[in-house]
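Lab notebook, bench 4. Still working through the backlog of constructs that have no structural model yet. Next entry is a single chain of 440 residues. Request: give me the structure tokens for it.
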Amino acid sequence: MPVVALIGRPNVGKSSLFNRLVGGRQAITHETAGTTRDANYGRITWNGKPMMLVDTAGLIGSGRHGSSHDELAAAVQEQVGAITGVADVFIVVIDASTMVTAEDQLVARLARKSGKPAVLALNKIDAAADSPLEAPERLGITPLVAVSAIHGRGTGDLLDAVAAAIAPTATRVPDEPVITLALLGRPNVGKSSLINAVAGKQQAIVAAQAGTTRDVGSVDLRYHDQTIRLLDTAGLRRRGRIERGIEQYASLRTLAAIAQADVCAVIMDATEPSVAGDQHIAGQVLEAGKGLILVMNKWDAVHKETGTQERLTRQLVRDFAFAHWAPLVYTSATHGLNVTQLLELTRQIAATRAHTIPTAQLNRRIETLVAKHPPAGLKNRQPKIKYATQTGTNPPTFTLFTSYPDTIHFSYVRYLENGLREAFGFEGTPINIQFRSKRS
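Model written out:
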């Protein structure tokens, strides 16, 4: 998934433009320069091209408070240098209601030096009627697109230009589908060591220092006549603990890898099991609708007594109750313990996610569940489920036609989900249950 980064000096409207493009108020906006400090990201699709849109902080905010020009340029170079190796396309945002500043020129120059495609967004064009922008062409970035983040003017043209700048993907249709498994986790839990153990050779650099992996590496393996692509990602930390610069944008690459993957394995350190960060990463996988495997790595480093694994398993079941359907594997990259089981589970989960339940079987199961426990409803509004059909795969999605769909309680949705899992499996994948009015 290509990464598209919005860059520019502070207070040119990057966050407002980001919110407009992703279709929601995801980034905090304020007239005070420098409001954005952490990068925001959003996945969008335009003209059939998915992309990861990134809203970055103002690149030269610190230089506006008395720093020398050299320090200003160094600050810009440091931040832009952190994202040039990550971003595939830049949207250079400038304020169309003011003159081009030296800061705009610095940002544009460094974007050009990166060698990556760039689009110049002339924002706040609605406020530029009486004071037109002076010579934006001298920034040397084309195409130029006039936009208004506040009113939405020109945003479609901007996305057209960005989509055109994205390098086309290979058009060759593979002989067989490739299953993609992303290895996720906090820094230094052994993701790179595990991918080396699965591959059977040195594929990723490993070191005792946390954060060695900063980009997403991949390796293709053949397992039971099936190609499985392993993605080795950078360690994800809690958002507030992610350092500015290279680590910040490496984390964005990891989030893009989740979007690319069919199945994600959340790798945990058995010597420090099930911290909040592990649960947060699993939650991101669920939000993306991907398959999930929980992996307890470094099992060889744990001092074991009678019942150690059983106690830890019970703890993990409690901590990951929101993903109770995810299989749990104990591994040791050092000794090769259960590493091939990851490939077997990946293959099984991918098949489960693509499986379609015959409509007749699905309706019989729903009728049995409803007869055993009908939905409660509210007062005189009693929902009655009439018909069910599977409307999607990857993840499996089911649509139930009913009266008063807005009265269905989330606990009843969970009851139906458990009933479907009991009958049809769906191990390792979330499932979606949607309710639609029978009249529609």
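Notes after review: Residues 69-84 form the longest helix (16 residues). The CA atoms of residues 359 and 389 lie 6 Å apart. Flag for follow-up if needed.
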